[in-house]
């Protein structure tokens, strides 16, 4: 077959290749706690995640074009490959499994970075495609770059090499539907050791929940992550005392809010002063030393149709409120 995406093949309660960047705190799309929530759900439902899987249109298009991206990668490297991989690869000792887009058949050719051919060797001067290797397809709308971010394949293929014992990996990334770049990787020991540690940490948290019902969350990475992780408020619990360090942060937060309020007040005063001068004009010029150095625009807001906001249940707020006591 031509490399049609097979969907998720790895267990939902176990670390997988696509999860590695999140566990390392390097994914803009999911946090370590998001991974834990799905794993906890899978533990509660016979090993299978029962919640809705988020639909991401870009990922859907990536799946549709996976075969073409893999074929283009094979052509650039002058290799053959197996593209119908229907079973995951389980690491022999770690609780880690990966699913592969393809397995390339190495041709013993040595590659160096060649921008003219859109081939980039990562982390070394050259690499020999010896034996089987990992093929991974990616699609993105961002501008082409000489090195992909960790979450767009590099960490994933290191995990894949760990599970397969393969010595090389190729990530074919199609940028904007018009430019295919191939990134070649070898084994990176330090990265793989970090992946192993992250996987064991994740597995220990899942086992703690499975065996004892305890949710050992990771430290939240953002306010949204915190609100999603600690969703409820325990009634009857009294206030907790912040540590000295956190108390200092709370006071710093209060100072930031006061500074923001002062800036907002000043902006409103300046805006009103300029608006009074502009009156019915929509454009003014900013002058310094007799030269125009900028413009001020005051246009019309876009019309908006009336709509009704859907009802939704109460949810944990993503913000905190700090109120300092005034000295008397």
Task: Provide a brief overview of the structure.
The protein has helices at 20-23, 32-44, 57-64, 66-77, 154-164, 189-212, 223-229, 244-278, and strands at 15-16, 80-82, 89-90, 96-98, 102-105, 110-112, 119-121, 126-128, 132-140, 168-175, 179-186, 283-288, 291-297.
Please provide a written account of the structure.
- By secondary structure, this protein is an alpha/beta fold.
- It is 35% helix and 19% strand.
- Strands 2-5-9-10-11-7 form a six-stranded mixed sheet, with helices on both faces.
- Helix 2 (32-44) crosses helix 6.
- The longest helix has 35 residues, at 244-278.
- The chain is globular and about 75 Å long.
- The model has no long low-confidence stretch (mean pLDDT 90).
CATH class category of the largest domain: Alpha Beta
Strand content bin: 15-25%
Q: Residue-averaged pLDDT, rounded?
A: 90
Task: Please provide the count of β strands.
Answer: 13
Rg, Cα atoms, Å:
26 Å
Q: Helical segment tally?
A: 8
Report the helical percentage. 25-40%
Q: Gap between N and C termini, in Å? A: 78 Å
How is the largest sheet built, in terms of strand order?
A: 2-5-9-10-11-7
- Total of domains: 2
Principal-axis shape: globular
Largest sheet: 6 strands, mixed
Q: What would you say the CATH architecture of the largest domain is?
A: Alpha-Beta Complex
* N to C succession of SSEs: EHHHHEEEEEEEEHEEHHHEE
Structural class: alpha/beta
Outline the low-pLDDT stretches.
Answer: none
What is the third-level CATH name, the topology of the largest domain? Answer: Lambda Exonuclease, Chain A
């Amino acid at each position: 077959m031509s490399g049609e995406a097979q969907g998720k093949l790895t267990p939902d309660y176990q670390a997988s290749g696509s999860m590695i960047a999140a566990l390392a705190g390097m994914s803009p799309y999911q946090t370590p706690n998001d991974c834990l929530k799905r794993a906890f759900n899978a533990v509660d439902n016979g090993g299978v995640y029962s919640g809705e899987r988020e639909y991401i249109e870009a990922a859907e298009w990536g799946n549709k074009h996976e075969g073409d991206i893999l074929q283009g990668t094979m052509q650039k490297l002058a290799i053959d490959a197996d593209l119908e991989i229907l079973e995951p690869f389980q690491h022999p000792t770690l609780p880690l499994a990966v699913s592969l887009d393809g397995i390339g058949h190495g041709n013993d050719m040595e590659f160096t970075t060649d921008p003219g051919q859109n081939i980039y060797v990562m982390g070394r001067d050259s690499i020999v495609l010896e034996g089987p290797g990992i093929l991974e397809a990616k699609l993105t709308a961002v501008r082409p770059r000489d090195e992909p971010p960790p979450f767009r394949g590099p960490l994933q293929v290191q995990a894949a090499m760990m599970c397969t014992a393969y010595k090389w990996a190729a990530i074919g990334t199609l940028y904007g539907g018009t430019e295919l770049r191939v990134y070649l990787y070898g084994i990176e020991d330090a990265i793989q050791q970090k992946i192993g540690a992250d996987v064991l940490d994740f597995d220990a948290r899942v086992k703690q929940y499975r065996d004892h019902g305890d949710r050992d969350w990771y430290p939240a990475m953002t306010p949204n992550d915190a609100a999603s992780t600690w969703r409820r408020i325990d009634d009857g619990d009294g206030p907790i005392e912040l540590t000295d360090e956190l108390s200092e942060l709370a006071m710093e937060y209060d100072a930031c809010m006061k500074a923001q309020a002062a800036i907002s007040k000043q902006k409103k005063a300046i805006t009103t002063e300029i608006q009074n001068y502009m009156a019915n004009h929509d454009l003014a010029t900013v002058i310094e030393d007799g030269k125009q150095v900028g413009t001020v625009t005051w246009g019309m807001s876009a019309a908006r149709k009336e709509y009704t906001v859907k009802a939704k249940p109460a949810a944990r707020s993503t913000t905190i409120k700090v109120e300092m006591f005034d000295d008397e």
